Structures are given as C-alpha cells and as structure tokens.
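Entry:
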Amino acid sequence: MISIKPGTTLTFASPFDAGPIQVFFTTPDSNSSTGAVRFSSVEHIYPQWWGAIGDGQTDDTAAFQRMFDATYDAPTGSYRTYTFLEGRYLINGTVTLDPKPVPPVPFGIQVAPTLLGAGMGSVTTYLGIGTTFIKNTTGPMFVIAGSYDAAADKFTLDSKAQVNPKYFTTERIRFTSTLATSNILKIKPIGILGESRHARIRDSIFTHLWTGIDTRGYSDYSLYDGCIFDCFKAVILRSPDATAFVRCQFGETFVQTLQKSGSTCGPALTISGGDVKLQSCSMNCYKNEWAISMVGTGFPVLSIDDLHAEGCLLLNANCTPFADGKISGSRISISNSRMGFGQAQGKDSAITLNHIDGTEIANSVFYALKGTKLPHSLFSVSNGNLLVRGTSFIEESSASPYLGKAVIPGHILGLGGNIVFQ
C-alpha cells in the first residue's frame, strides 16, 4: 500500500489503474486522514482504495471522507467521478463535501462529485442488489457545502460567498436505512442535504428514510429523473431561486407501511421557492396529508403535467403575500393529469390555494376513491384566481354525488369541461 503523509500531494503523471482493493495506507484510527492524490488519467476511482468495505456492517464513513478529501482539487475547487461497486456501504456518520470558491471568481465554478453505482435492484425491498448506502443514525449521509446541526435542524454554509458547487450527480444508487419503521421516525435519517447547483439525481432510490433530499442555501437548475422516493418526506426544495425538473415516483411500500401503522407522512414534495416542473410523475398513498406543499415567501411557480396521484390530497399552496397585501405572484398550472383523492381526515379541501396569483387546471380528471373519507370540498381558493377547463370530476362511490360537496369559494375565472358524477 502507498502511504501519503497528511499535507502532502502524490501525483501520478502516467495513467493510473487499480482494482477495488485498498491502495492507500491508513492507520487503525478510523478518523485519520491521508495526503492528496492527483491523477493525470484514471478510469475509475473506488472507495476501496481508502479502505471501504461495503459489507453492510463495517462503518465506511471515514473511508468515504478520506476518498473525497484526498481527491479534492483545491486549485479548481472540484471533485472527481467515483465508482461504487455492488455492496452495502454503511454510513454511520456524515460525509461532508466542501468545495471552496476559487479566487478571483467568487462562486460558480466548483464541481461537486459524481457518484456512480452498480444498479438499483428491486423497488419492493429496501435492500436490493446493486449499490446501497445505509444510514442508521440521525442526520444526512451527505452534506454539501456546509455543516448541519441535527438538534436544531440548521444548515450553515461554510463560506460567506455563494459556493454553488455544480453537477452533484448520483446514478443507480439506493439510499436507505435498515431501521425499524418506528425508529426511522425517531432517529430521522436523511439522504442528501445542502447546497448544490445543477444537481442531477438519476435512476436512484431513496427509501426507509425520514427525508430523501433536502436542499438548503442556493440550489438551482436541478434534475430529478427516473428516481423513486419512498420516504416520510421525499424532496424538500427550500431555495428561493431553484429551478427543478422532476420526473419521479413518490411513495411505495415504505409509505404504505407507515400509513398502516397510523403515521401521517408527507408532504412528498415541499416547495418554498423557485420554478418547479413535474412531468410524468406518480404520487401514491400519501394519505392524510397533501402530496405537494407549496409555501413560503419565495414566490414559487409550479407546473404539473401528466401526473397520476392516488390515495392522497393533492396540493396545499399557501404563499406569503407582498408587503402591500397583494397576492404573492406565485403561479400554478396542472394539465393532462389524473388525481384520485381521499382519506382527508378533516382536511378542508383536496386543493387549497391561498395568495396564488393564477392557477389553471386543464384537461385533467379528479376522482374520489371508494370507501374513503372525502374532504369537505374539492377546491378552496382565497386571495387568488382559479381557471378550470376541459376537466372532469367523477365520484366513484355509491354514496351521494360529490358535486354537493364541491363548493368552490373565492374568485373563479371559469369552469368548464365534461363534468360527470357516478
């Protein structure tokens, strides 16, 4: 093995290649660090080079941290691409990714790491084949560009300047815990938390966690594509300047288990700012809670196309008005979607809109699920505008027609389409 003293840098001038075995020596102290490594050319970088085991029992937190610290390139403020073979990597601590601004450019050129896994396996079990990251302790697996205080639920940027690490990418990785359901709600493990510009989360699974992804700070131009989020809370988009494109599934067996045990989970997606687009998504079984919560002062814009939501209330949009009391300027559009709602448990409406400048619902179908407790009304609108066109409202139950409960207060721009009650 190669021993590199802390504070020194080893540079490989020729192409470097090694299998997934330990290459760089570390002391028995799991918190010890190694010096930096620079590769002129390398095809794969494995965590095993720094001592990761991936057996689901050995804590690989320190090995992961050593790998990222050793390969971080300070002159460019960037990380590399890392390959994680099939295995179960236990992360009892938190791995910190901390790119720094590079003078004279204060922000915007750092590159966050790319984490490439070996496949997701089955979606019906939290431990499938492929690459699995396991978190059984409080807080996140990965923190980006800052530090996290779990007791206070507070994220602090490490730099006063906007760091904006670009291109944080995960592909074919499962983020999970092996905790009992009741302990997940107490311990609150999280997948990824922090600030990342141009995040690309692809073909990954987040399951058996308190929260899958929680963006803090300045996080814009993000892509969540082909993922499954099966967590108490799936994705929280807190940045006021975020632009996020989402094409994922929300809710699976873990959410169903939570609800059978009587837990109220959700929202699946929380938006407090920015411009968010959902396309070709499904949201299942977030009962007793709205699937989407759009709140705050960031004047968010939400666009939904081709959404299938069932077994949940759809949307609670409650934005803060401007200082002069006028509506917030937030906007919502819903099109080409099917929404089956129920299990209201005293919630007033399937869709609640407060201080939303303009909401348009077009070419969609709303239907009430059989045998469920329905909300008091389908829509509740205050301090805003709603336009509904080309949309059907269907009552599947044999009880009285839902039309009698579909009271729509507020200012209505129009209501049209084929309205059917069965």
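The longest strand covers residues 290-310.
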